[in-house]
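Here is an idea for our session: we take a single protein and study its fold together. Which protein we use is up to you, so please pick one and set it down. Once you have written the record down, we can walk along the chain together:
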Amino acid sequence: MIRDTAATDRLLAPPSRTRRRLLIASVMAAATLAMIAAVARWASAEHSVDGSRVRIAEVTRGTLVRDATVNGRVVAAISPTLYAAAAGTLTLQIHAGDSVEEGQLLARIDSPELDNELKREQSTLEQLQSEVARQRILAQKARLLAQRDADEADVARTGAARDLQSTQRGFDLGAGSA
């Protein structure tokens, strides 16, 4: 059987009123100081931006790569502008101030959209080429079968012509039944 815990309980004296007031005052002072610090930090902030719009990346030294949406021609000027038909990553092949020749590659645009379209079209080309090869094989097979049938018919015709000659010779010599 479980014994009663009443023997271990003892009555505590309530805290004095001055001690309680001191505790409440110190908690209120700490809360006020924390609120003042938060308001001061908020007031000194210049701008806030939504976290989903911020991209964070490691900074490294290397070639500068810029994204560009352009339409396919270069306008020569002090500050040349490049236009291309598709969006992508632009990698400059020359530097500002370099002399260039007609037809020289100035920049390369890497476009995932165009790369995917190229791969899709290459796949379609391979499918069509395999279909053409299959149709060529079927046409070759049909031609060989037709040639075989023609050869068999020619052999049968030659055999029938020989039988006719043999029968005709026998008939001419009077060996045939009338």
